[in-house]
Write a structure and sequence with these properties.
Strand content: 15-25%
Distance between the termini: 19 Å
Bound molecules: zinc ion
Helix content: 25-40%
Largest sheet: 9 strands, mixed
Number of helices: 11
Radius of gyration: 27 Å
Number of domains: 3
Length: 428
């Protein structure tokens, strides 16, 4: 879609001197997104519709990136253009063409600005244009439009799954009790909770899993009217709930608290596209786990998931790291044999400090947490699992999970809950 326009070449024989003219018949259309109000580099999925036909696109032309915040097209004058965005890009949905326009004689530029707050009147339309005249000879004038991306519009471009769609989307191996529970979510739950009953089988006794859903503050703050049960839960991908319920059951969890599913205007695209789930609490008959390790960094407060001994070992690791870094920063030319020896010692000391922190942390990690994480990482629908103990950015790649050291932004965000991202390549 971004290749150069084919130039029509015509030869004018009627004129006295022979002249060749290039007529570039196509018009440039550029949609520019400003999502800096919530996340500047938001990886918003998109597809383009031209004259009612959705264009197939290479993977790098299916979502915005940090360096590319625009969608650029070349179309014939008179073409009707529209976008499908977010989870509505899925080929089975595409119900909500937005920011539609008809191209005239000029090029077109549409600036779409994300605006938080409850702005009910704004619609996903481009309105009327202001024409920017061509500056240089040979340039074309540009019809400029301005539009908003509000919470209400986010809701519009986030697919609302029906119970039948949920049933069809779930992996065939989904256990019947999970299937029944997930269907119930999309039929509209009567209350923000769910009881999943697993009957006894050859391998396991009967098991009941209680799920509680917290209201979405972000949806309330940015959408005119948004119901947790009718709007938020059913905009979340059915396989996300199925993965959580199936793996919680396998890990022996009897209670889980879900705090965030689909949400319109916070954080990465995962939750906005309905592919993210956050949980803050799990329990079984013998253990309750508040999924929180805030306080690992700095002076910290009391947190039952960080024992004094672990905190001490973590602080020792930070110190050992600083010392190793200081000595490795010295110029090689000035290093004597003794400084090189010292350098090796410092690096070994850092390795040892890390091993001791890892051992102590693992020793105290609630077993239920370990088991749930391991199960979630094995689930074929799950792409990422981030929690206060461990970070796994890609369950399919070869690199192992890493300890959550609460240093990077992503680590810090996940110091107080477990997040999972679902894999659906048709969306993201
Ligand atoms: Zn999350």
């Amino acid at each position: 879609m971004t290749e150069a326009a084919p130039a029509a070449t015509g030869t004018l024989t009627a004129s006295t001197s022979l002249t060749t003219v290039n007529v570039s018949a196509r018009r440039k259309v550029r949609y520019v997104f400003d999502t800096s109000a919530t996340k500047r580099d938001l990886a918003l999925p998109y597809r383009v519709s031209i004259d009612g036909k959705v264009q197939e696109a290479a993977p790098h032309l299916r979502k915005l990136s940090g360096s590319k915040r625009s969608i650029e097209l070349l179309v014939a004058p008179g073409a009707r253009v529209a976008l499908f965005l977010n989870s509505d890009v899925h080929p089975d949905f595409r119900r909500e063409p937005v920011y539609a326009l008809q191209v005239g004689e000029h090029d077109v530029e549409v600036l779409i600005t994300e605006q938080p707050g409850r702005i009910g009147h704004a619609r996903a339309v481009v309105g009327t244009s202001v024409t920017r005249q061509a500056g240089q000879p040979g340039e074309r004038a540009v019809d400029c439009y301005k539009a908003l991306l509000t919470g209400d519009i986010w809701m519009q471009i986030s697919h609302l799954y029906t119970a039948a769609q949920a049933d069809a989307i779930l992996p065939p191996e989904t256990a019947p009790p999970v299937r029944v529970a997930v269907r119930a979510i999309y039929s509209g739950l009567p209350a923000a909770q769910l009881l999943v009953q697993f009957p006894a089988s050859d391998g396991a006794p009967a098991h009941a899993l209680r799920v509680a859903f917290a209201d979405s503050e972000n949806a309330r703050a940015n959408i005119t009217y948004c119901s947790l049960l009718k709007d938020v839960l059913p905009r979340t991908h059915p396989a996300a709930f199925a993965a959580l319920l199936s793996e919680a059951h396998k890990a022996g969890v009897t209670e889980v608290h879900v705090t965030s599913c689909w949400r319109p205007m916070l954080g990465s695209i995962a939750h906005r596209a309905g592919l993210g789930l956050d949980i803050v609490y799990v329990a079984n008959a013998s253990q309750t786990v508040r999924i929180n390790r805030v306080g690992l960094i700095g002076a910290g407060g009391r947190n039952p998931n960080i024992r004094a001994r672990e905190k001490q070992l973590y602080d020792e690791l930070i110190l050992a790291e600083q010392q190793a870094r200081a000595i490795s920063g010295e110029r090689i030319a000035t290093q004597t044999e003794s400084t090189q020896k010292e350098k090796i010692e410092k690096i070994n000391k850092e390795r040892l400090a890390r091993a001791r922190w890892n051992d102590e942390r693992n020793l105290n990690e609630p077993k239920l947490m370990q088991e749930l994480r391991q199960q979630l990482q094995k689930n074929p629908s799950v792409k990422q699992v981030f929690d206060p103990w461990y970070m796994e950015a890609d369950t399919r790649d070869q690199s192992p999970q890493t300890a959550n050291e609460q240093r990077s932004k992503n680590e810090t965000i996940h110091a107080d809950h477990l997040h999972l991202t679902l894999n659906d390549l048709q969306i993201l």
